[in-house]
Each structure stands twice: as structure tokens, then as C-alpha cells.
Amino acid sequence: MDFVDACYHTQTYFKAYENLILPMNGMELWDITNMPPCVPPSYSKQPGRPRKARMKEVGECSKKANVVTKVQDSLRCGQCGRNGHNKRTCHRNLPPKTKIKKRKAKFIIFCLILVNYSNK
Asked: How far apart, in whole angstroms, are the C-alpha atoms of residue 107 and residue 86?
């Protein structure tokens, strides 16, 4: 019983590679034939904007490999010099906060109601 196909036998492998193609030293040694010469395929310009740079192969390095990028730890304010915010959001630019206490606001509203009621 033979469980392996004939294409995997060593005899088939040796038979496939028994004809060697030896290299030649230049085009002068090529045989001259009556066939037309091989030409590359015709090229037609594809629609769309052309690429900015060509596609790099696996072995080639890109420009970004040689460029050191700037790393920013955190924002630093140009006005006060502290970290964590910038000049636009600096607390020095903001007017001071004035909080109206709830009791005062209620008292002012109560007084206005009394004045309006007494004028009637």
C-alpha cells in the first residue's frame, strides 16, 4: 500500500531538477531566433493624484527612521511658568471669582418683594 502521492517521491524530485540551466557570460552568447524580442507591458497613467513618495521595499529604511521626534512631557505655561496648563488657560488671565452667598441672595430677593408690596 502506498499512502504518499508520486509527486512527493525523491525519484520525481530528481527527475524534475535533472535539466540544469547554466549561466552565460553576456548577451553575445545568446542564440539568435526569428521570434520578436520581449517587450515590457504597455503602461497607461492611472487616474487620481500621484503618490507623494514611492512605496519602499522591506529592506529599505524610511526617512522617519533617522528623524528624532520631539517628546513633550506636559504643558508649561508661558505666563506663570507652571506645568499642566498653557497661557490661554492660565488662572492669571481670569477675573477673580465673586461668589454670592445663598443667604444674601435670598435676603435681597425678600427685600425687593417687600418694597414692591409696600409700594402698592
From this structure: 41
Helix (H, G, I), strand (E, B) or coil at 115: helix
Q: Which amino acid is at 20?
A: L
76 forms bridges with which residues in the sheet? Answer: 83
Between CA 102 and CA 113, with CA 107 as vertex, the angle to 5 degrees is 130
β-sheet bridge partners, residue 83: 76
Given a contact cutoff of 8 angstroms between Cβ atoms, the answer to whether 86 and 75 are in contact is: yes
pLDDT digits (tens, 9 = 90+) for 13-55: 999 888 887 888 888 888 888 999 889 999 888 899 888 888 8
Nearest to 74, CA basis, from 63, 59, 86, 88: 86
Compute how many other C-beta atoms are within 10 angstroms of the C-beta atom of residue 52.
5
Rounded distance between C-alpha atoms, residue 24 and residue 27, angstroms: 8
% residues pLDDT > 90 (the chain): 11
Are 30 and 24 in contact by the 8 Å Cβ rule? The answer is yes
